[in-house]
Amino acid sequence: MTPRFLQTSRRAFLGGSAAAAALAALSEGAQAQQPLPPLEEYAPVFLTPAEWAFVMAATARIIPSDGDGPGAQETRVPVFIDRQLAGDFGAATDLYMQGPFTPDADMNLGTQSPLTPAEIYRQGIAAFETWCSNELGAAFADLPADQQDSALQALADDDVGLEPELREFWTLLLQNTKEGYFADPRHGGNAGMQAWVYIGFPGARANFHEWAGRDEAYPLGPVDIAGERA
Question: Is residue 87 assigned to a domain?
């Protein structure tokens, strides 16, 4: 049975964060666009080999390659996540990190962990991998797809027993997967603007106002911040 985190159309699942991620890509500082090696040859700058294997496998289940649009692998979402964790996002540069912290407080009170996103990933992956080994007998990347889905559902349902300071791990992983799918390609994900093409987003075009509200598809492909066309 399809896990609950995948029980929706791809457009509905991704659509809620598409505009926010795309606008963030237009407004935030970014690294210069560079040619990237094939995904299997990419050398992570933050993630260890074991962590990279987990991120590769987890994002591939969150946005699978067998849907009606490109998957996380095709759009290089893991590269986006690795780069973000190695940069200001991972270091919580823009977050207030002076406490007091109450990690087990109501989630509606916002972020309460004393850990940076990079630390949450590192410790969260380790804790989740321990759970996978104990409960399912293998590292997450070595599990069959149905067990990977069940494990991610347990993580989403907070049934893995993570410490309170790590309970944002699933939320971050899901959020960053969506962001990597839709962000400008210079951030490492959305390779070839495939996600923008899929949803019909024009990208960084200066003006497409005349097409707003029309009951027809936008006829021109997207353009990224660097001026490249899909």
Answer: yes
